[in-house]
Each structure stands twice: as C-alpha cells, then as structure tokens.
C-alpha cells in the first residue's frame, strides 16, 4: 500500500447542481491495488498506517486524471490546419491524413505519438475516434495498452460521400467491428466504441449494422458527430428527408446512455429533448468549434434539457490535447455567447474535464479521488518562477488557484500522471 501526501482538488459533487470544489490541503490518500482505501488529513492517515510507503506530492496540486470524451487518433499530424470550415477542412487536412492509416507501420508511429500526447496532457481516460482501417485501430489499442491508458475506441465507418479509400460496406463494417471488439473489448483497460463517422457519410443500412454491433457487444459505447456545422446539418437534412440530426441516429436505436455525440453546436429543441430523455451525453469541443468557426456551444440549453455534457479536445480540429485549454475556451465561449451564456467558474471547468467525462463514458470508478475510486490522478507542478507558479502562489484560495491553472496551465505543467496507482509520465 502507498500513502500519497499532497493537496487534492476534485469535484465529487456536480457544481452544476449545487456541488462545490473539494479542497484537501496536506491530505493523505491510502491506495492499494490502484484503489483509494482511505482519505483524510495526512497525519491521521499516517497514524492509522504507520508502516506504509509515502509518496510526497507536496509543492504541487493533485487533480483527478482528465477524461477526454472526443479525440481523433489519426489526426494528430493534422493539428493546426486553420482557416477552413468543417467540410472543407475534412477534405483538405483531416481525410488525406486518415487515408495514410492504410499503412499499418505509419499508423503505429502515429498511435505511439497519440498515446504519449494524451498521457503528457494529464489525460488518463479517453473516448477515441479510431481509424477507417481495422489494422490501424488494432495498433491504437496495442499502443494504449502499453502505456496503460483507459481507452474506448473503435473502427470508424462510412459508406458514402467521403473519398473512396475511406469507404466500407455495411457487411464489412459489421464483420470488422465485431472482430476488433472481440479482440479488445474488456481486455485490460480497453473498451469498444461503435463509431459511424457522421450520418452525412453513413447510409441507413450502415447505421443499422452499427446497431447490431452495439447489441452484440455488451458494455460497448456508441459515438459519432452531431449538429456541428450549418452546411453539414443542411446536407444531413437533405439526405434524411428533413429529419432533425439526432433522429438520424435515434431511429436506429443508437441514442441512449451508451451514446456520446460530439459538438451539438446547433441543436433543435427536439434534438435536446431526445438527448435529455435518453440520457445520451454530448462532448463539448470548444477549441475545435472556434478553430473551424462552427459556432458557440449553447450550454445553458443543454442544462435546461438535462443533457449530460463533458469536454473533448477533438484533436486534430481541436488545437491540442490539454483539457486545461479546452476548459478555458469553454469559459470564453460562454462569455461570448451573450445573455444565454453560462458563467463557468473553476469548479465547473474541473468537473467538465473529469467527473462529467467519467459519467459520460460510463466509468464510475474514476473522475474524482473519493474512497472506493481508482487512483487516476495528475500532479500539476509548474516550473519555479513561471507565470503559473506565481499565480498559484499568490491566489487567495483554491478556487482562484484552479482558475489560474485553467488560464495559464499547459501539458508542460503536468509533472506526473497515475492510472490505477501506476506512474505513467514524469
Ligand atoms: N465530422 C465528421 N468527421 C469529423 C472530424 O474528423 N472532425 C470534426 N470536428 N467533425 C467531424
Ligand atoms: Zn470529432
């Protein structure tokens, strides 16, 4: 057993429904086999367990590991393709790079960079958009297993309106998806996600095949994109006889508590009602929404309809792996949206980056650092004299220190990361 000594910040109680930031200065967390067995003032935990090893994390702040609910593994080398809206950006930047995943050696190199980037950003769990090629998804799961990340991913499928080399058929999509799920779902920390790219690029037959895979893989998730860009939404309405976007998935039984839909920048009230009633979650991807000019996310309307919301980096339309940056951009977005904006404080941002993500991904064992949870955590320790170190040192209280972390922090300030109490990154 190990006692971690430090200052711990987390959000076990949802700040959108009255919870506040939990702050425990000089606390002790007793961890055995990756699980937090006791938590209290360091002195008390030490007295009760005098013989255990101590890992001293003083001089920094310990947060739960981040949960990234939407990130594309084959797009890391496409980050920074600025200046285009979604459909043009896909054609110009994202899809040519995704086509390179046909070469499994190339995909393996990208997968290694991808898992390192996530871990370095303090992200311990992620719902990852895979590749259109089964072998590339296979190397992603292998790379994630080596590092030990908690990954949910799957084969991305499409059968129309993308470049030819990325298309599949409903039969092949079903067979390849099921084979990958049988190989990886529930193995180590890996889980499978059924992943049609978006209904723009998927026929009803393909979405029906996705539903069959979801049914045949208990505990799998469903993920896709929704209501991101006006031109995309108009095309989807044309293709599906004027339907609201969420219903293009819902009519196939793909929208429920297992579902995580990315973006939802321009939902109708009917879309929000269905998402709220079914318990589906939305991955809010604020830097991507700004970079592609997709729009300002209507958070207040999501909250009104009881829709679960968490954060996604959406690399490569998003601008990097750090959920600190996504939190700050989420805050900016609400400031800019006008009367409808929800004023986010630092507890909201931490919740969106941690516990909300764990909830969206169906991972009740992570998201905060309570007794009974797994020790998935990160130590933020900025370099001495850096603007963040100065800001944290002179903060009046922990909420203010946390706001400064979201404002000034980057992956460079993440000093160490643990999953199940195993040290990943230093
Ligand atoms: N919609 C369909 N594919 C994509 C993608 O790769 N990125 C984003 N942001 N939206 C999408
Ligand atoms: Zn995306």
From TrEMBL:
Pathway in which this enzyme or protein is active: Purine metabolism; guanine degradation; xanthine from guanine: step 1/1
GO biological process terms on file: guanine catabolic process
Domain Amidohydrolase-related, first and last residues per copy: 61-423
An annotated GO cellular component: cytosol
EC id: 3.5.4.3
Molecular function terms from GO: guanine deaminase activity; zinc ion binding
Co-factor binding details: Binds 1 zinc ion per subunit.
Cofactor(s) it depends on: Zn(2+)
Keywords: Hydrolase, Metal-binding, Zinc
Chemical reaction(s) catalysed: guanine + H2O + H(+) = xanthine + NH4(+)
Keyword Hydrolase: yes
Function: Catalyzes the hydrolytic deamination of guanine, producing xanthine and ammonia.
NCBIfam families xrefs: guan_deamin (TIGR02967), PRK09228.1 (NF006679)
Family: Belongs to the metallo-dependent hydrolases superfamily. ATZ/TRZ family.
Name the UniProt record assigns to this protein: Guanine deaminase
Organism per entry: Kribbella turkmenica
Name of encoding gene: guaD
């Amino acid at each position: 057993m190990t006692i971690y000594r430090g200052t711990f910040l987390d959000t076990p109680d949802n700040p959108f429904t009255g919870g506040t930031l939990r702050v425990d200065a000089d606390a002790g967390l007793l961890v055995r086999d990756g699980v937090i067995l006791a938590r209290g003032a360091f002195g008390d935990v030490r007295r009760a367990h005098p013989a255990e090893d101590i890992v001293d994390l003083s001089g920094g702040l310990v947060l739960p590991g981040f949960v990234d609910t939407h990130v594309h593994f084959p797009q890391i080398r496409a980050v920074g393709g600025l200046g285009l809206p979604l459909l043009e950006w896909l054609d110009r930047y994202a899809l040519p790079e995704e086509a390179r995943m046909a070469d499994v050696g190339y995909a393996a190199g990208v997968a290694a960079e991808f898992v390192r980037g996530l871990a370095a950003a303090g992200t311990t769990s992620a719902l990852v958009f895979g590749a259109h090629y089964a072998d590339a998804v296979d190397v992603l799961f292998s790379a994630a297993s080596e590092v030990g990340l908690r990954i949910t991913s799957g084969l991305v499928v499409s059968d129309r309106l993308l470049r030819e080399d990325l298309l599949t058929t409903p039969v092949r999509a079903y067979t390849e998806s099921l084979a990958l799920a049988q190989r990886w779902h529930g193995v180590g920390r890996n889980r499978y996600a059924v992943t049609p790219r978006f209904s723009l690029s998927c026929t009803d037959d393909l979405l029906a095949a996705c539903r069959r895979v979801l049914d045949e893989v208990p505990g799998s998730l469903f993920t896709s994109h929704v209501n991101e860009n006006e031109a995309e939404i108009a095309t989807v309405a044309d293709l599906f006889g004027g339907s609201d976007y969420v219903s293009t998935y819902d009519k196939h039984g793909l929208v429920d508590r297992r579902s995580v839909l990315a973006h939802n920048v321009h939902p109708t009230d009917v879309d929000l009602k269905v998402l709220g009633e079914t318990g589906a979650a939305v991955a809010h991807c604020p830097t991507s929404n700004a970079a592609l000019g997709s729009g300002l996310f209507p958070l207040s309307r999501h909250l009104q309809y009881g829709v679960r919301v968490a954060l996604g980096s959406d690399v490569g339309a998003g601008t990097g792996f750090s959920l600190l940056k996504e939190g700050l951009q989420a805050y900016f977005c609400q400031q800019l949206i006008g009367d409808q904006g929800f004023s986010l404080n630092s507890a909201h941002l931490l919740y969106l980056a941690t516990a909300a993500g764990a909830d969206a991904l169906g991972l009740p064992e992570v998201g905060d650092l309570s007794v009974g949870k797994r020790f998935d955590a990160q130590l933020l320790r900025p370099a001495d004299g850096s603007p963040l170190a100065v800001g944290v040192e002179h903060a009046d209280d922990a909420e203010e220190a946390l706001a400064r972390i979201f404002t000034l922090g980057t992956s460079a300030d993440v000093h160490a990361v643990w999953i199940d109490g195993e040290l990943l990154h230093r």
